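Checklist before submission:
- one chain only
- standard amino acids only
- sequence pasted in full

Submission:
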Amino acid sequence: MHPYRSVLYMPGSNARALEKARSLDADALILDLEDAVAPEQKLAARGLVCEAVRAGGFGARRVLIRINGADTDWGADDLAAAIAAKPHGILLPKVDDAEDIARAAARLGDAEIGLWAMMETPLAILNAARIAAAPGVQGLVMGTNDLVKDLGATPGAARSQIMTALSLCLLAARAHGVLCIDGVYNAFRDEGGLRAECLQGRDMGFDGKTLIHPAQLAIANDVFAPDPDQLALAKRQIEAHAAALAAGTGVAVVDGKIVENLHVVTAKNLLARAEMIAKRAKDAQG
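Returned file contents:
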């Protein structure tokens, strides 16, 4: 397993940015051939990104390539080139239904590459369960900017305008055992706003957040990691529940609250997440 607390978009047309990505403290990188690349730079960006992926050197970071849509002049060749480059994953934009995933999956052959879906259209949200269940899908990525545009909504700090969409995608991801990554926070210099939105996403259940600037990495990594108090409580819950079972009482109490099996499952998941993050940090140093 691998953490996805921080998932940073990097423009595929910028060779310096691609090189810098190898040293950034990101859990995952999205090397972008779509929105971050002007039409006249698409072919060059494809070459830069695929060369960078083949060259490696990204350490413990997971590397995804976001290709252009299948309905564009570049989509089919982007997909072929990305498959040949063998990243950890390929991020498909403008996914509307499971059939979009199936068409890409059919071209993978024996390549062990995960497929990720951008959830950025109203139709994608309505079909979230089908998309999350599609064979080969590893995760859903919220495309909140495009979603707001398509809805004709006015974005607000609490994101109430898109809360239904966020929740539906989370439900679909959890129902089918795939990852779900929150959308970007556009004001990259607004640390307070970023932290608040990361906290909101974490408390909803997102696995991490997509980011648009390296300056956002530290906050996302901090917020989406379990804090020491949470970990200490989780350990006490597990120990108290085990002691209760051993004593034959079946009832454990920690800090005045009953601890049931469901709490133990949550506690163990939290400890496993902490171990996963610690391993990622160790791998990055090594």
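Reviewer check: Residues 228-285 form one domain.
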